[in-house]
Design goal:
The structure holds 2 protein chains of 2 kinds. By secondary structure, chain A is α/β, with parallel strands linked by helices. Chain A is built from 15 helices and 9 strands. Classes of the chains: A alpha/beta, B alpha/beta. Bound molecules: flavin mononucleotide and iron/sulfur cluster.
């Protein structure tokens, strides 16, 4: 039995007229826009996968004259580069998505938090923005967008740290609750969405919720843009229908010798060959913000783990104890085990520690360090010890 | 109202209550480290995590408000495992050489480790070279990063209560640390030495530079005559460190203990507090005359107090243009030091070079102040060693004294007599009140028009207090003040000092006289006081201070017989040449960075 091929999709980079979608949005009531997004089943593409329509609905229900839309273009997850491509190829759709979100929740001001390393895109993006603003004016659409630059800290992609950064403080996550829809940027109700999420809302208004919902699975509707790298003959950016297994994915993108796929970057999960068949790429299985890295048998999984832990050791904001100290312990722990200074059973202690980090850390960073750690140690234990 | 259950017990609490507070109502204590009642919520140590049924992760009890129907478990397996892990992690980045630590026995991390019986050292030791992590450059504060657990209580204190921002977070991840501007040594930064950070540090990362051994050595040297002075706020707090409840005044026991320890003369800073009122009151009236009558534009008003060395360093850094507004009076500690080696030495016929002058202060900034080069007008270092209230408590314990059972003993003479006005120096508004009691009477010949001399408007814990007194019925000499409304402001905590100074800077305040104390609550909340401190404890100490004032037979500085005597026998008149030489000083501009 030969399974179906992976389904390529062409929405994000298609030639949708943002003008038409905006005209359509103006004619719709805010509730209707939100309902359309809710009906589509779209979930956030930044990683956490929160239902976008629900997020908008919460923010819309907040009273208050000042609200904000923030586009998260910090794209810091190792192995993802799709937001960059979207910003290069379809900036107007990103802006249109923000304007539509603004109309939906009653916000007149938007910010795009752009990854520091993407500064080179800024000139062109600004040119496009001038054009976009003039178009909004023509349409009588009251919305304004400004850029804010990141400075290279991974943690500033976390929504509340991102707000802190825009507000001019150290980029450190806040306590939640309150959530951004209640108290976000400058303490105002805020919707923060990933670049790709915003573009999909434009496509959903254009093609209708039904069209989007028909794709994917019940937990993971629609399609998604993947950043594919590692041991693959065809690295790059692909828009694919959600719901495929890792096995299908590897058939399409592997080099014939794939031993593991890291789904979701450093904060994601490592899927070993023996789990390819049963693992679905999506919210019911392994979620991903887009990062897919393939490894063939020439790769040392110890080096991989070391690299990820090194990354977290440096990129943890450092404010909370489980994450700041936990990352150091995991990193130095695997080094000690490798060097034979610690017994291999020490890995079990570290797995328990990773679990504590998952439930006791303040933000998503510390909570997800354990994902890669646990899956790599579980499936490639010998490679870590010997 | 919100209904929830904690460990299966139901309760109803107000909206906005945190899980931590709610649990307390049911008599469940949830452990904390980064939490402090005086500060904003941080939620970063994670020691207070609890299980919220249905939630993917644990939640921080200090930072999470209750919601309807919430079910909380404070001691589930996952909570206990996480909590132990977190304590282990903190210990792994902590130089846990407890027996050698100054805070041994008073460390919150240590007691938590003890409570959870962690001692098995599951994790690797992350401290490599702890010796290189200590900053000993400051005269007041020792900062040891190897003992820091990054709870940020100090950073929040410096920012929220003091508005100084000397302590800040630098770097991220494993390199994250509490640092100074560009990691400069502590003596070179904007730190005011107020020690409020020390009061809130849960570990031994921030402690005072202690002088206990220096003082013992002086006492045990038969050649030396060791004079000790005790600040107003020490008598109402020392008891806390030696077994009494907060708010218990222990003046007589303290004097007794000091004598038993072996100090040769046990005297009172309150005496020079009274003297400060005479000198500073005279300075205020002189400045008013210079401005109102002589129309001198080189004389600055408003006049601000100068007793608080934390405030002095703050203004030297932040508002150097206003140094001319600061009273030239030395602080009571330094007036005392200067007189100890001159007036006292002459009267008691002791060679001043054999006098060692020690002060017991609620303050860490006093250590810096005593070391200022300006503070040597007796020809010697006016105050040789400054001990905090905490250090004195330690000496009492070292001497094996059963403090709680001591009999009350009186101060020695001379320089041991004081009025109620000097006692209240220890509370915010006290200097103002004492000054008004005297100045009003000098000018009008009548007592201040407040019941029992209690000037209530300048009392209390409001950050900035304003008051005005209409002066009428002046004696002939002060006719120019007839009908003048004397406008005063009182601020405590440097955040509030800044608020007042910004008003002064804008020029729309119209104040004549301003009292500023660096610490919240005034000296009673000083950085050298027993730990813990919080608003309840400060209120109790304040109560004790005002009770002490009411119980004194003399309530006004100018009626203190020893003050009258020191002018007659030694100083001449207030603001005389001699008092300028010994009792007044000058200030210097300091860099902000
Ligand atoms: C450590 C960390 C880094 C993150 N980085 C990004 C990022 O670079 N881009 C992004 O869109 N979301 C990032 N997120 C997720 C955001 O916090 C947030 O959930 C997202 O922007 C919401 O948008 P969405 O609902 O459209 O996905 C990060 C989260 C964490 C915890
Ligand atoms: S989990 Fe890590 S990144 Fe997140 S707040 Fe805590 S220390 Fe910072």
């Amino acid at each position: 039995m030969k399974a179906q091929k992976i389904k390529r999709v062409d929405l994000i980079f298609d030639s949708t007229s943002t003008k038409e979608v905006l005209v359509k949005a103006i004619k719709m009531k805010p509730e209707e826009i939100i309902q359309e997004v809710l009906d589509s089943g779209l979930r956030g593409r930044g990683g956490a996968g929160f239902p976008t329509g629900l997020k908008w609905k919460y923010a819309a229900s907040e009273k208050g004259a000042v609200k904000y839309i923030v586009c998260n273009a910090d794209e810091g997850e190792p192995g993802t580069f799709k937001d960059r491509q979207i910003l290069e190829d379809a900036p107007r759709k990103v802006y249109a998505g923000m304007a539509i979100a603004g109309r939906a929740i009653g916000a007149k001001q938007g910010y795009i938090y752009l990854r520091g390393e993407y500064r080179y895109l800024l000139f062109k993006l600004m040119e496009e923005l001038v054009f976009f603003h003039s178009r909004l004016k023509e349409l009588g659409y009251d919305f304004n967008i400004q850029f804010r630059m990141g400075s290279g800290a991974y943690i500033c992609g976390e929504e509340s740290a991102l707000f802190e950064s825009i507000e001019g403080r150290r980029g450190e996550p806040r306590n939640k609750p309150p959530f951004p829809t209640v108290s976000g940027l400058f303490g105002k109700p805020t919707v923060i969405n990933n670049v790709e999420t915003l573009v999909y809302t434009v496509e959903i208004l254009d093609h209708g919720a039904k069209h989007f919902k028909e794709m994917g699975t019940s937990d993971s509707r629609g399609s998604k843009v993947f950043s594919i790298s590692g041991d693959t003959p065809k690295p790059g950016i692909y828009e694919l229908e959600l719901g495929m297994t890792v096995e299908r994915f590897v058939e399409e993108f592997g080099d014939g010798d794939t031993k593991a796929v890291q789904v979701g970057g450093a904060s994601g999960f490592c899927v070993p060959r023996k789990k390819f068949r049963e693992t679905i790429i999506g919210f019911e299985g392994v979620p991903t913000g887009g990062s897919m890295i393939l490894f063939n048998s020439s790769r040392s999984m110890y080096n991989l783990l070391h690299n990820y832990l090194d990354f977290f050791d440096e990129e943890s904001c450092g404010q909370c104890a489980p994450c700041r100290v936990g990352c150091q312990q995991l990193l130095q722990g695997v080094v000690s085990v490798k060097a034979g200074e610690k017994d291999s059973r020490y890995l079990d202690e570290l797995v328990k520690l990773a679990k504590t980090m998952k439930i006791a850390s303040k933000c998503g960073l510390g909570q997800s360090v354990g994902n890669a750690f646990r899956t790599i140690v579980e499936h490639f234990r010998e490679e870590i010890i010997y | 109202m919100i209904n929830l259950t904690i460990n299966g017990l139901e309760l109803e609490v107000d909206k906005g209550t945190t899980i931590l507070e709610a649990a307390k109502k049911l008599n469940f204590r949830i452990p904390t480290l980064c939490h402090h009642q005086d500060l904003c919520v941080a939620g970063n140590c994670r020691v207070c995590v609890v299980e919220q049924v249905g939630n993917r992760t644990l939640v921080a009890a200090c930072a999470t408000p209750v919601t309807e129907g919430m079910e909380i478990n404070t001691n589930s397996l996952s909570v206990r495992t996480s909590r132990k892990h977190i304590i282990e992690l903190l210990l792994s980045e902590h130089n846990a050489d407890c027996t050698k630590c100054y805070k041994n026995g008073e460390c919150e991390l240590q007691s938590l480790a003890n409570e959870y019986s962690v001692g098995d050292h599951i994790f690797l030791d992350l401290i490599v070279d702890h010796k290189s992590m200590i900053d000993m450059s400051s005269a007041s504060i020792i900062k040891d990063d190897s003992k820091c657990i990054r709870c940020l209580r100090c950073v929040r204190t410096c920012e929220e209560l003091q508005g100084v921002h000397a302590l800040a977070v630098a770097n991220k991840g494993s390199e994250q640390k509490i640092s100074s501007f560009f990691d400069k040594p502590w003596r070179e930064v904007i730190c005011t030495n107020c020690g409020q950070c020390i009061n809130r540090c849960p570990t031994g990362a921030l402690v005072e530079r202690n002088n206990i051994e220096d003082v013992w050595n002086a006492i045990l040297d038969p050649e030396k005559h060791v004079v000790v002075q005790t600040a107003p706020a020490v008598r109402v707090s020392l008891g806390e460190a030696l077994g009494f409840e907060a708010g218990h005044t222990v003046t007589g026991k303290m004097v007794s203990a000091l004598k038993r320890i072996g100090f040769d003369s046990v005297l009172d800073t309150d005496f020079t507090a009274d003297l400060t009122i005479i000198e500073e009151g005279t300075e205020l009236l002189t400045r008013l005359k210079d401005v109102l009558v002589n129309k001198r534009d080189d004389v600055a008003l408003p006049l601000t107090t100068s007793c608080s060395p934390g405030w002095i360093k703050f203004i030297e850094h932040i508002y150097p243009d206003f140094l001319k507004n600061v009273s030239t009076c030395k602080s009571p500690q330094q007036m005392f030091g200067a007189l100890a080696k001159t007036y006292f030495a002459q009267k008691r016929k002791i060679d001043p070079k054999n006098i060692v002058s020690v002060s017991i202060m609620p303050c860490t900034a006093k250590k810096f102040e005593a070391n200022r080069p300006e503070m040597r007008s007796s020809g010697f270092k006016d105050v040789d060693f400054v001990l905090t209230t905490r250090e004195l408590a330690r000496m009492v314990r070292q001497a094996g004294i059963d403090f709680m059972r001591l009999e009350d003993v009186n101060y020695d003479s001379i320089m041991g007599e004081s009025s109620g006005a000097s006692v209240i120096f220890g509370a915010t508004g006290g200097v103002m009140e004492a000054a008004l009691r005297t100045a009003y009477e000098i000018v009008t010949g009548r007592e201040v028009p407040f019941k029992n001399l209690n000037i209530i408007p300048v009392r209390g814990m409001k950050g900035v207090k304003e008051a005005s007194i209409k002066i009428d019925g002046c004696t002939d000499e002060w006719k120019f003040l007839e009908g003048v409304e004397l406008k005063c402001a009182v601020a405590h905590g440097l955040v509030n000092a800044r608020e007042v100074m910004e008003k002064v800077k804008k020029g729309d305040a119209g104040y004549h006289f301003i009292e500023i104390m660096a610490c919240p609550g005034g000296c009673l909340g000083g950085g050298g006081q027993p730990i813990p401190t919080n608003s309840k404890i400060r209120a109790k100490r304040a109560r004790a201070i005002y009770d002490e004032d009411m119980g004194k037979p003399i309530r006004k500085s100018h009626e203190n017989p020893e003050i009258i005597q020191v002018y007659k026998d030694f100083l001449g008149t207030p603001n005389s040449h001699k008092s300028h030489e010994l009792l007044h000083t000058h200030y210097k501009e300091r860099n902000r960075y």
